[in-house]
Amino acid sequence: MTINVLLVEDQKLIRVGLKSLFEDKNDILVTSEAQNGKEAVEKFRTVHPDVVVMDIGLPDISGIEATKRILEINNKAKVIILTSHLSEQEVMDALHAGACAYAMKDISTDILKMVIKTVVEGAMWLDPQVVPILREKNCGVIPPRQMSRAMFKEQHANLTQREYEVLKLVVEGLSNNEIAQELTISEHTAKAHVCNIIQKLVVDDRTQAAVKALKEGLV
Fold it and tell me: What is the predicted pLDDT for the residue at 7?
């Protein structure tokens, strides 16, 4: 299956560079582009991409506002923020707007491809530079830790040690295949662990499992 991407970036050179990253791949394809936020919203409405890769600093409305408007059109839209901006306020606003991922522009090609695939699978992904901001500054996306790790484990004692290890990797945004490689297990086993975690935490998908783990202070 080919993942169709709408690329939103006002600088042509960056658009060309990002688009070229996927030209040798059949699984990810930039099928449409936009130079500003309003154009991005209109393109999303007409082309229905699988994923939107969105810059924040756009010349008209911001990428955050464009993300919000896209989610108003389709609340299941997948938007990845790809930016050089790392302020606490912008991280908070982007996630509140409904972005599924927040990545910095110095991200490697392989990681960006992984993020796109992870988001399509229904997971969220945060750049390692973003997680400390959410935890330490408590910008409102992830509430303060209301219970200790020991308390969390006591309340969710039915999770095995391996499932805790898998959950940590889910929070970090790894796909089932990457979890399998990290833990030296089969992808089928990794998928089974993720399914068990979702059931035991009483959530609907891996994104909710990750969010719950962060909220409860497990990771």
Answer: 97
Place of tokens 């699978």: 121
* Tokens 């992808």, located at residue: 187
Instruction: Please indicate, yes or no, whether residues 126 and 185 belong to a single structural domain of this protein.
Output: no
Q: Do 89 and 164 fall into the same domain? A: no
Same domain, 75 and 176: no
Angle between helices 187-200 and 206-215 (to 10 degrees): 60
Residue 142 forms part of a structural domain = no
Residue 53 — φ and ψ, nearest 5°?
-100, 115
Number of domains in the chain: 2
Those residues with Cβ within 8 angstroms of residue 213's Cβ, 6 or more apart along the chain or in another chain: 167, 168, 170, 171, 201, 219
Distant-in-sequence, close-in-space partners of 59: CB < 8 Å, separation ≥ 6: 10, 35, 36
165 plus 115 within the same structural domain: no
Q: What is the pLDDT of residues 103-147, one digit of tens each?
A: 999 888 888 988 898 888 877 788 878 877 776 654 444 433 333
Residue 181 covered by a domain: yes
Calpha distance 96→195 (Å, rounded): 26
Residue 185 makes CB contacts below 8 A (sequence gap 6+) with: 179
